[in-house]
Every structure is written in C-alpha cells, then in structure tokens.
C-alpha cells in the first residue's frame, strides 16, 4: 500500500458537498443516519465546514457509521470496494423526516445495499417506496442514485421506484440493467443504445428528466421532449488522480442546472465538467470548483469528439 487517506463519502455527502463547491446559492441540507463515532464526526465536521445544514441528519450512538474501503491500483486506476454497512443496515423509513424541509429536491441512494430499506415495509414493496412517498407528500422532487450491482437486482429494486421519482441520473451499465437494453458491448458504451434506454425510461415512467452518462459522453431527456447529447471532457492523463465521486459530481451538475432552470444542454456540459474537475483528487468532491471555473477548465482541456 502506497498511502491511506480518510475522506467523506456516500450519495448524500458527495451530492451536497459537490453542490456547495459548484457555488450553489440555494440552501443545501443533509438527511440520513450516522453513528456517534470517529467516522460520523468526520462527516459532520466536513459538512459543517462547507456550510451544509444538518438538522435532519440523525446521529445514533448504538450503531457505527457506514464506510467503504476503496483500493485504487496505482498502475491501472482500477478500483476495488469493501463496504461496511453500519448504520445503513438498520436505517428505516422512520429515519427520514421531511416535515420541516423547505427544499425543492431530495437526493437519495443507494438502493440494493440497505438491508431494511431494500425489503418490504408495511404495505409497500420496499422501504424506499415509503421514503419516496413521504418526500413527495412533503412537496419534494426525488432523485435517486443507484449502485452498479448485479443487473437483475438493479432492475428488481428500481422499477417500483420509477413512479415516485422526478429525475433519474445513472450510468450506462445501470441504464442497461433497468431497461434490459444492451448499453455496453465488449466493455464499451454504445451511445445509441444509451439513447434508446433513455427513451424507454421516459416512456415507462413519469420522470421529468433522465440523464445517462458514459465515459465518452452523455444524454439528457426532459418530459417536454427536449434531448441533449454532449461528449465528455478530454481530461489529460497526467491530471487524473482518482475517479471516486466522478459520477456523483456529474449528477450534481445535472441537479444544479435542473434546480436553476437551465437548458438541459448547459446542465449536461456542467455535469461533464464537474466530473472532470473531480478527477484531480483522490477524494470524492474536493477538487470540484465553482461551476463557471469547471466549464473554463473543461474548455481548456477540450471536449472529446
């Protein structure tokens, strides 16, 4: 092992810190469950420092904070994950209280690795459905982050959630898993297949927006019929330190633009630029910079063709 460092992570942490670093002028709040331990303190210290409100972030003394060991291979950049669920294993829909929230959007994740939330809850097919219904009842528009587990499991757990989501931002593999469209062939993303997957998702849901990203580019579709495609950033190999959080930074760019009412092409370009900026550090979002600076950095590096 060449080095070891501790950083904050998880969908909520990555999304909220990326939004703040992009320069969000709207309030950003945390919701979830952590333990009263060193890892939990790392999270609370980090979000306090960056200005994220956390009255709905519960701290439970009798459990541990979830964590993931991410092993990055120095020669190839290949990542291996070792996940310890901690609080995620005991988190239930009752841990989510949106009653005092003034937010417009709620970002959740990751179905498939939460013991209680993945299972049936009362009369619902899963705890996630209960949480999404609570969020919608409170006037929030939900977005959810997936995790690239077995395709059959992604499809089974995600399909019941589509009716309760406002937006969905996923990668090529996850899009293929949900729609059963072959979006990756011989390890390479098929852009045309990703577009078909996006069309399929719009056809079989009430999503206001769907975005699919892949190494060479991305596509965004909106309910009003707008479609935007754009290549990703041609990041110099010498600038890449780690890819942890790149997908989260992409999603933050999309949600930033969606929240601000931007045209979807502008949001897609920011998403690619934020993901590219994040690659300059081994942590998830530490290298994300204000949104205009992200765009300038991407323009300077150039866009793939």
Radius of gyration, taken over Cα atoms and rounded to an integer in Å: 18 Å
**What is the element string, with H for helices and E for strands?**
HEHEEEEHEHEHEEHEEEHHH
Give the name of the CATH superfamily: Ribokinase
Low-confidence stretches: none
Number of domains: 1
Helix content: 25-40%
Major beta sheet, strand line-up: 5-6-7-10-11-12
Mean pLDDT: 94
Ends apart, CA distance between termini: 37 Å
Protein described:
- By secondary structure, this protein is of the alpha/beta class.
- It has a single domain (11-301), classed as 3-Layer(aba) Sandwich (UDP-N-acetylmuramoyl-L-alanine:D-glutamate ligase).
- It has nine helices and twelve strands.
- It has helices at residues 11-22, 38-50, 127-137, 151-158, 172-179, 191-203, 246-260, 264-278, 291-301; strands at 29-35, 53-60, 67-72, 79-84, 105-109, 141-145, 167-171, 184-185, 188-189, 209-214, 217-222, 227-231.
- The strands form four sheets. A six-stranded mixed sheet has the order 5-6-7-10-11-12, with helices on both faces. A two-stranded parallel sheet has the order 1-2. Strands 3-4 form a two-stranded antiparallel sheet.
- Helix 1 (11-22) crosses helix 7 (246-260), helix 5 (172-179) crosses helix 6 and helix 8 crosses helix 9 (291-301).
- The radius of gyration is 18 Å and the shape is globular.
- The mean pLDDT is 94.
Which key features would you list for this structure?
305 residues, alpha/beta, UDP-N-acetylmuramoyl-L-alanine:D-glutamate ligase, 12 strands, 35% helix, 21% strand, globular
């Amino acid at each position: 092992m060449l080095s070891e460092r501790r950083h904050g992570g998880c969908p909520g942490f990555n999304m909220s810190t990326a939004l703040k670093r992009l320069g969000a002028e709207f309030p950003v709040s945390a919701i979830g469950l952590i333990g009263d331990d060193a890892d939990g303190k790392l999270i609370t210290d980090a979000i306090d420092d960056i200005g994220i409100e956390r009255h709905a972030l519960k701290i439970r003394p009798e459990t541990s904070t979830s964590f993931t060991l991410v092993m990055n291979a120095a020669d190839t950049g290949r990542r291996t994950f070792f996940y310890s669920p901690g609080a995620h294993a005991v988190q239930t829909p009752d841990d989510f209280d949106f009653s005092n929230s003034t937010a417009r959007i709620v970002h959740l994740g990751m179905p498939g690795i939460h013991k209680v939330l993945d299972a049936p809850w009362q009369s619902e097919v899963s705890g996630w459905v209960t949480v999404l219904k609570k969020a919608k009842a409170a006037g929030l528009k939900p977005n959810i982050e997936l995790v690239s587990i077995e395709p059959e499991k992604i499809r089974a757990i995600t399909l019941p959630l589509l009716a309760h989501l406002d937006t969905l931002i996923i990668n090529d593999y996850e899009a293929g898993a949900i729609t059963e469209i072959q979006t990756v062939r011989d390890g390479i993303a098929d852009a045309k297949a990703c577009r078909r997957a996006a069309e399929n998702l719009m056809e079989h849901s009430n999503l206001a927006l769907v975005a699919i990203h892949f190494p060479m580019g991305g596509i965004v579709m909106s309910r009003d019929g707008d479609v935007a495609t754009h290549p990703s950033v041609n990041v110099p190999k010498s600038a890449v330190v780690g890819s942890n959080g790149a997908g989260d930074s992409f999603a933050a760019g999309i949600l930033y633009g969606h929240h601000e009412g931007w045209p979807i092409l502008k949001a897609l370009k920011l998403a690619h630029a934020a993901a590219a900026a994040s690659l300059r550090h081994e942590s998830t979002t530490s290298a994300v910079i204000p949104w205009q600076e992200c765009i300038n950095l991407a323009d300077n590096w150039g866009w793939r063709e």
